[in-house]
Amino acid sequence: AMCEHGGMLNHLHAKIDDLEVAEGQVVAQTAPQCFDISLWQLLSALLVGGRTLLVEQNMILDVRQFVDTIARGRVSVLQVVPSYLEVVLTYLEQHPRELPDLRYVSVTGEALKRELAQRWFAAQPHVKLVNAYGLTETSDDTNHEIMDRSPDGDRVPLGRPVNNVHLYVVDEHLNPVPLGAPGAIAFSGICVGRGYVNDPERTRPAYLSDPHRPGQRLYLSGDFGRWRPDGKLEFLGRRDT
């Protein structure tokens, strides 16, 4: 997918604002450069006078070395997939230690289970957990659910859209569905890229004109969800599964 600089910058500022990245703090880059999430991990701290700690992949393969690296590097903000967070959490449950500099752990790429969030807050009650949701086609994460305690209910919500992102839950005619009803998740605003490079057949059904905001592009994600009464998005599955 071809994304625009404006979408990347909007995402960087969303991470800086919501994860309170500030001067002197350290953000860990855990993702390889070929993944979209590596961009905010690399650049967000540098925009505000912080530091980026480049975590080598061989460190990630050894959870003891990974935890030591995060602790020695005084990492403030960390992002991993939920399955790896479970590996880290199991290690910390077996080898308890303080991580005094760690303030936010963001998870992305997989569904976050409520049980894992409960275990996290039992082990690290002072470290906030962020359930991040987004797609490469929408300049990475578009939603942040920021938690300081275990969530209520069976599902961990995806949270609310970040600044300058418009998100709809729509029917097959692109009309918004009633509150609580399931529908297709669609994005509009600065986050939406231009399309798939040299692939008009894939671009045509996914990238449309936003009927609700003239002049804006709309991206149909293939994901399904619903709005909760508290204004947060809940993920229900994908069209192709």
UniProtKB/TrEMBL annotation:
Pfam families the UniProt entry points to: AMP-binding (PF00501)
Biological processes, Gene Ontology terms: amino acid activation for nonribosomal peptide biosynthetic process; secondary metabolite biosynthetic process
SUPFAM superfamilies documented for this protein: Acetyl-CoA synthetase-like (SSF56801)
Record-level Gene Ontology MF annotations: phosphopantetheine binding
Residues of the AMP-dependent synthetase/ligase domain: 1-196
InterPro entries found in the cross-reference section: AMP-dep_synth/lig_dom, ANL_N_sf
Any one cellular-component term (Gene Ontology): cytosol
Protein name (database record): Non-ribosomal peptide synthetase
